[in-house]
DNA sequence: ACGCATGTAGAACGATCCCTCTACCTACGC
DNA sequence: GCGTAGGTAGAGGGATCGTTCTACATGCGT
C-alpha cells in the first residue's frame, strides 16, 4: 500500500539523516524502515532506490515546512522563510542539507546530482515568488545555501545574518 | 624528490575529490597515491587517517590559493577572495567543499566535524582580517559558504552575486 | 662489503556488504 | 472454505571490504 511506502520512506530518511549515506547497511535501513528485508526490496529494489525514496520524502517535508502558509507581504515572507529554514536546521538537519550529503557520498551519480539541482531550483523558485523577487533566484540560492551550510557552525547568529542580507537583497536593484 | 608523505596526501586528496569519501576502496587509494599498500598504511595507518591526510593537504592548498598575495585595500581584497574562490571551484572542486563531503559521509565522526569547524573558522578569520571587517566572521562565512555551495548550480553567476553581497556587507554596520 | 631503512607486490584473513531465496503467517473478498 | 495479496523472519551466496603479513628489491652511509 501507499501507506507502507511512506512509512518506509520516512524511516529511510531518518536513518540517512542520522548516519549519512555511506554508513548504514541495508539491514540498518530495514530496522529504520520497520519492515522486513523482502518488503523493503519490494518498494525500493536496490540501495540506490532507498536513497531516492528518502530524498523524495525529504523534499516533500522540507517544502511543506518552509513554504506553507507564508505571510502575503514580501519582506515578511522572506524573513519567515529564513526563520523556517533556521527552525528546520535546529530540529531536523543539524548536520546540513541531506541532498548535498547524498551527492557528496556519490559525486559521480548524475541522477543524484540532477535530483539535487531540481530540489534547489524549486526552493529558489518558491522563494523568489514568495518574496516578490522574480529573476533573483541566484541571489536567493546563495543566501539560503549560506544559511543552511553555516548554521551548523554558528547557529542562530547565522539566521540573524541571513535576515540582514535578505533586507540588503531586497534593497538592491 | 618530493616528500613521500605529501605525494601520498596529494594523491589521496585527488581520489577523494573525484570519487567522494564513501566509494574509493583502500586499493583505489593506493593506486591514486602511487605507493604500495604497505607504504600507504605506514604513513596513514587506517582509512580514517587517509581521510585526515587528504583534508590536511586540501586545507593547505586552499588557504594558499585563496589568501596568498591579496591586495592591500579592503574592498579589493574581498573582491579578490570571491574571485579566487570561484576560480578554485571552477578548477578544483566542481562538486563542492571537500570538508563538507567528508562530514556528510560520516556525520557521527566528531573529529571530522571539528576539523571542518576549524577549517571554516580559519577561512572566516583570514577573510575578516583581509577585508577589514573584524567581528563579522559570521556574515563572511555565510557569503563564502553560499558561494561555495551555489557555484556547482549556477557557476559564475554565483560569483557576481557574491561580489554584490560583499559590497552590501561592507556598507552594513 | 654490509646493515638498515624504505620501498614494492600481492596473498590471505575475517568481517561485512548487497541482494536473493525459502518457508511460513495473516487478512479478506468471493 | 479457500485462494490470493501482502506481509515476516532469517539463512545464505558471492563479492568486496579494511587490514595484516610474508617475501623480495633498492638506495645509502659507513
Automatic annotation (TrEMBL), chains A, B:
Recorded superkingdom: Bacteria
Pfam families: TetR_N
Sorted UniProt keywords: DNA-binding, Transcription, Transcription regulation
DNA-binding region: 25-44
InterPro entries per UniProt: Homeodomain-like_sf, HTH_TetR
HTH tetR-type domain ranges (all copies): 2-62
Entry annotated with the keyword DNA-binding: yes
Record-level Gene Ontology MF annotations: DNA binding
Record's protein name: TetR/AcrR family transcriptional regulator
Organism for this UniProt entry: Thermohalobaculum xanthum
